[in-house]
Write a structure and sequence with these properties.
single chain; 6-stranded parallel sheet; Dihydrodipicolinate Reductase, domain 2; 14 strands; 6-stranded mixed sheet; Rossmann fold; globular; alpha/beta; 360 residues
Amino acid sequence: MGKIGAAVLGATGAVGQRFIQLLENHSWFQVVELIGSERSAGKTYGEAVRWILDGEPPMSVIDLPVKPLDAEIDSTLVFSALPKEPATTREPELAAAGHIVCTNASAHRMAEDVPLLLPEINADQVGLIEVQRAKRGWQGALIANSNCTVMPVVMALAPLREFGVQKVMVTSMQAVSGAGYPGVPSLDILDNIIPYIGGDEENKVETEARKLLGRFDGSRVQPFEAVFSASCNRVGVVDAHLVVVSMALAAQPSMDAVIEAWNTFRAPEPIPSLPSAPEHPTLYLRQPDRPQPRRDRDAGRGMTTTIGRLRLCPVLGYKFIALSHNTIRGAAGCSILNAELLAVRGYLPDFAPLRVSSAL
């Protein structure tokens, strides 16, 4: 079977570049269409892009033309790295036209009929696609992944749901790449920590976590019942968001039981067999000063959430730190993993020969 062609919206931006980098040599998908801003449209990708990732743009996309945002798209599969404003209208247009849109944008995450997917923890919410299609009359679908800061929070909490998560307090230390390019001015971030991130960041962490960890009842997601409180900070790190988490657990398990839950956490098949899925979705590091962004952000090819410093909290009961690569696990990598899940669940017609019967 040949690879499935995919389009990337916002292809010249920071997350668009990460999509292109991660899809290079992907075993199922290949980038065949690139969509950019008015400034980039009409140029080749090599002419339009200012590549900010390591290395060079893949040769497979250098000569591809950059199409304008309103251009007709041939690919069924669309990855969106659009800013919120253009995503608000363009993504639903494409889904209505029959495209499967896997978006990193925030515009539609909290819509009741849009799956907010993190396959290891809520793959059953794929069922919202049928609700979405029935409600909106679409042939395609719109599927989102979460805010990059909530990613390490929910990845760390998901294996602990059996212990009865009740209250969660989060303090983030977020990399500058989370602000896009050119991001935070150097005179603001050097020798400094910025205790505020715009775009309703703290509310996104508090609300998206409850949807991600919630229960799909066949027609909607019942939000997770725990209470969340978040404080978000920008720090002078290039990539990876680190979160400090305090939590109350009803069951009051032992420290060893919590660590065992993290280290043995696995999703049901076929998710662990998907090309972008890490061997260890969550991994506890026993060194007293880990995880650290520079040393641990690339764990599991950037898809593993590393956790450390589990200890007693005199206020809520337990506290720990967790770290995820914000532009891989927290952005493009998760969107690609979502598309892989949709492929094996039969939502990409060209993938039909490889459809599997899953336990989901």
